[in-house]
Amino acid sequence: MLGIAVALCRGVHLAALLSGFGAALFRAAIVPVAGTEAGAGDAAIGRLLRASLVAALAVLALWFALEAATIADAGGLGAELGALMPVALATRFGHVVLARAALLIVALWLARRRGRSRWALAGLLAVAVASQAAIGHAAAATDNVVLALAVGLHVIAAGAWLGGLLPLILYLRGRDPAGAARAAVAFGTVGLIAVAVLAGSAVVQSIALIGGIGGWVGTAYGRLAFLKLGMFVLLLGIAAINRFRLIPAIARRPDGGGVAALRASIAAEAVIGLAIVLTAAGLASLPPAAHEQPVWPFAWRPSAAALGEPELRDELLGIPVGLAVALLLALLGWRRARWLVVPAALAVAAVALRPFDLFFVEAYPTSYARSPTGFSAAAIARGAALFPLHCAACHGEEGRGDGPLAARLSIPPADLTAPHLWDHAEGELYWWIARGMRDPVGGPAMPGFGSVLAEDDIWALIDFVRAQNVGAGTDGDGVLAAPVPAPAIDIACGAADWRGLEAFRGEAIRVAAVAATQPLSPFPDAATILLMREPDLVPEPDPVASSAPPCRAGGAAAWTAYAVIAGIPEGALDGTAFLIDRDGLLRATQPLDAPQSARAAPIALLARPAARSAIGVGHHH
Amino acid sequence: MRIIPATFAILVALALPNAVFAHAFPRSSMPPVGATLKTAPEAVVITFTEALEPRFSSIQVTDASGARVDTGDLHTVDGDAHRVAVGLKTLAAGTYKVTWHATSVDTHKTEGSFTFTIAPGP
Question: Which parts of chain B register pLDDT below 70?
Answer without folding.
Answer: 1-23, 121-122
